[in-house]
Amino acid sequence: MEELQKALNEKNLSVSTNPEKGRCLFTTHDFAPGEFIISENPYVCVPSKNKESAGLKCEWCFSSKNLKKCSSCHVVWYCSSYCQKLDWKMHRVECQCLSKVEGERVKYLTPSIRLMVKLCLRRQLEYDKCHRQLQAGGGLGISYPLVFLLARHCAFLDIMTHVELFDFNWFIHQDMADIDEKQLVLYAQMANLVNLILQWPDSEINIKEIAENFSKLACNAHTICDSELIPHGTGLYPVISIINHSCLPNSVLVFEGRLAVVRAVQHIPKGTEVLISYIETAGSTVTRQKALKEQYLFSCTCSRCIKLGQFDDIRESAILEGYSCKNGECSGFLLRNSDGTGFICQQCGLLRDKDDIKTITTEVKLMSEKASMFLSAGRYAEASAAYMMIEKLQMKLDHPFSVNLMRTRETLLKAHAWFFCVYPRFHPLLGLQYYTSGKLEWLLGDTEEAVKSLTKAWDALRITHGTKTPFMMELASKLEEAHAEASYKLRPRNDY
Ligand SMILES: C[S@@+](CC[C@H](N)C(=O)[O-])C[C@H]1O[C@@H](n2cnc3c(N)ncnc32)[C@H](O)[C@@H]1O
Q1: pLDDT tens, position by position, 324-345
Q2: Which of 302, 239, 309, 304 is nearest to 275 (CA)?
Q3: Does residue 216's CB lie within 6 angstroms of at least one atom of ligand 1?
Q4: Domains defined for the chain, CATH in brackets
Q5: What is the pTM of this model?
Q6: ipTM
Q7: What is the distance between the alpha carbons of residues 161 and 341, in angstroms, rounded to a whole number?
């Protein structure tokens, strides 16, 4: 812990432990909104394969352009020989394992399996290096990032039991009883596959421990997103994974390529715990708690969650996930009435019939199935028309500030003013919604509105994304161009 503490002190941070949360990261000086707190490269990472980011990606930079397959394993792709070279140290060992995976089995190489394989291999590599140094009699001569190499041999079973750096909540309540049985069976199957890929001798498989390791991976890995928050991969960031969760975070985790960057989103006084959100914060307390319990196995007691059941919390949940008033003009929120026949508007007292809600809910469900079918078939125009229908239906059904409506609109790339009510001032999604609105308004010729939206985007994103990244520089130049165009349009007539 001493070496870690020393390294963190230089960054005005410190680590301590707490019986409820395990390790916590604290500030040792004040941080201003937008100020950089810490950045870290991944210990291991893999590109994702999912609906949002379908298709293949470069193993190093996640680009999907000009990809070429590794000619040896035929599993991993690179966009350039530059990226291939940067990844070679790791891929050299992984390639040997992957090339032995035969036929049909290749399709089981999911990102989680590959992340676990890479983690085992990276530890093995470092263990070997450390061992060689010791044998050469030169002592270790290495500092903090490698101290954990002195841990036992990286057999699969003790993958996470090494000291300090990767001591993933080792001493806290990671109770296996919290993981449901189906998940345990899945972890067991995944563990067998990892063992098969590694083909390490005498690695005894203890399903319970391996399941635990997969569960720890799920708790500690971070989704790597681009500047527009589109997911591209998953990575393990040993120091950043010390940061705990809050549904009202004081910091945000963003990525510059594969580099993870934590920034303050509000003033953080010296001696405060650095907190990020692990989940989508625009959800009711019940939804957030469920997501945190399922993936991270803890019950959140942040200042937002402890309000569960209080009037403010009930109102917030009814707005975020509830229905709209029957009177379209009224923005009141609805609560179930005592006899179960429907929902009562808490502002105007109108009753909304249960059957009316049921009918629209069924229509939304049918239309959603159609929309996602169109989307996966690449029929984008029909998908877009279907999402517009869903939006119309949801406007009749859901509260105007509901998360469902927001997600539909997000899919349609439309931002609306109601969005402001859901996110705190400096949430990256808010900035990105302004950015999308600005681009759309500009495209539709409404340059003045575009300038307003892009300015708001800049104000929010400079806090969450910093100002020096290529994405932000592009935003700055778009804003400048829109400004120039708007002033040109506004100039007096006699200037023609
Ligand atoms: C990425 S780790 C964070 C660092 C962790 N505290 C440690 O000691 O390594 C995530 C785990 O930390 C714990 N954790 C994070 N935020 C928490 C919170 N607000 N309350 C309780 N436990 C929390 C949970 O066990 C979760 O699965």
Answers
A1: 999 988 999 999 999 989 999 9
A2: 302
A3: no
A4: 42-222 (no CATH), 284-321 (no CATH), 323-397 (no CATH), 413-496 (1.25.40.10)
A5: 0.79
A6: 0.99
A7: 55
